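Fold this sequence, please.
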Amino acid sequence: MNKRIIEILSELRPEFDFSENVNFIEEGMLDSFDVINLVTSLDQEYNISIDGMDILPENFSSVESIIKLLRKNGVK
């Protein structure tokens, strides 16, 4: 799952290295428009529907936080 998330992030913003252990939001690697596009991509990739209440910066600040959000939505 980790590798696929990095691939999705890289498709959205190919100019950044998402394998780095940094806060994607604080470093400016993802903005609010990117997060919405990421939610759409994750919904399609994992056949889920991420709740609007979960679309918070802290849920998209790292690969680990994205995995945690996906697991919350039933992705194994």
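The chain is about 45% helix and 0% strand. The radius of gyration is 11 Å.
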